[in-house]
Amino acid sequence: MRKVGTSRLLLLKAEIASDLEAIDKIGEAVSEAMLAVAPDQVPSPVVQSGLALYLHDFYQAVEQILTRITRTLNGFDTAGESWHIDLLRLASREIEGLRPAVISESTMRDLDRYRGFRHFVRHGYDRDLMWDRMQGLIESLPEMVASFRQDTGAFLDVLTQMINEIERRQS
């Protein structure tokens, strides 16, 4: 493992907590926006664009958390064309003697759908197809947020244990 002190691990915990708050706010905003859309109604293009941006920002915050963790503990480098999927795969793997998996395999597979949509939004593909691509993601966002929070919560518990162990050894 990279030699990481308690101050860096405490900072990592604080950064993750801040990013999780942003994820919660995004989830709340999407839920609120969807209250204005009647069931079986296709939202207007303006609402769709706003929802697409929220989905983009959700995945961006998830990726930020995973990048912070893997950079700090693994020395992960975000270089190369496939680093986005590599990050998800790395985060879903236990690294023996270093850290547990940050997210489950199931969460990784679900997050990969949001990663793909974020790519779709960033690269400005045909906006006429946007609702078809994002409706399921919008509907499953509350469960996705809950799964990601559960996984990262378990990881934060381990991170706290790591901090306590380092502090115990130093005293």
What do you see in this structure?
With 171 residues, the protein is mostly helical. Helix content is 75%, strand content 0%. It contains five helices and no strands. α1 packs antiparallel against α5, α2 (45-74) runs parallel beside α5 and α3 packs antiparallel against α4. The longest helix is centred in the last third of the chain and has 41 residues, at 130-170. The mean pLDDT is 91.
Helix and strand arrangement:
Elements: H1 6-35, H2 45-74, H3 83-91, H4 105-122, H5 130-170
Helix pairs in contact: 1-2, 1-5, 2-3, 2-4, 2-5, 3-4, 4-5
The whole-number mean of residue pLDDT values reads 91
Instruction: Tell me the Rg in angstroms.
Output: 18 Å
The topology string of helices and strands comes to: HHHHH
Main sheet summary: none
Number of strands: 0
| Gap from first CA to last CA | 21 Å
- Percentage of residues in helical conformation: over 70%
Report the principal-axis shape.
elongated
- Helix count, DSSP H or I runs of 4 or more residues: 5
Low-confidence stretches: none
Strand content: under 5%
Classify the secondary structure makeup into a structural class: mainly alpha
